[in-house]
Design goal:
By secondary structure, the protein is mostly helical. It has 4 helices and no strands.
């Protein structure tokens, strides 16, 4: 088994991303579920980089794709679209929470102003 240059790049990338995931967990920026998910993603990525021929039967027979690279590109796009959708939903929830807090603060401020105007000292 000989390792190609692109495999070395893939191995280094997977190890670096695994290290970053570990750092985020250590800083308590990731929950244990998030850590396990991302660590699993990097381990699977590393295994696919090391043993790319394990996908040949799936790629050629089941999916009828002529090259492994086509499979990786399609999977990459699907993963990115899923991540973007997840980020969008998080941003939208955060936006709604901020809007609710701003409205609540505005109502409280208005109530204080009305009290001041009704009861001059």
């Amino acid at each position: 088994m000989s390792i190609l240059g692109i495999q070395i790049v893939g191995i280094l990338f997977a190890l670096f991303m695994f290290y970053l995931t570990f750092l985020h967990r250590r800083r308590k920026e990731f929950t244990i579920k998030e850590y396990i998910f991302w660590a699993g993603v990097w381990v699977i990525f590393l295994l696919l980089v090391l043993f790319p021929t394990t996908l040949d039967s799936l790629v050629k027979n089941v999916l009828s794709l002529s090259r492994r690279m086509d499979f990786f590109i399609i999977m990459g796009f699907m993963f990115l679209i899923g991540v973007v959708f997840h980020i969008y939903t998080i941003v939208r929830k955060t936006q709604n929470k901020i809007e609710k807090i701003v409205r609540q603060i505005a109502v409280e401020k208005e109530m204080k102003n009305k009290k001041k105007n009704n009861f001059p000292s």
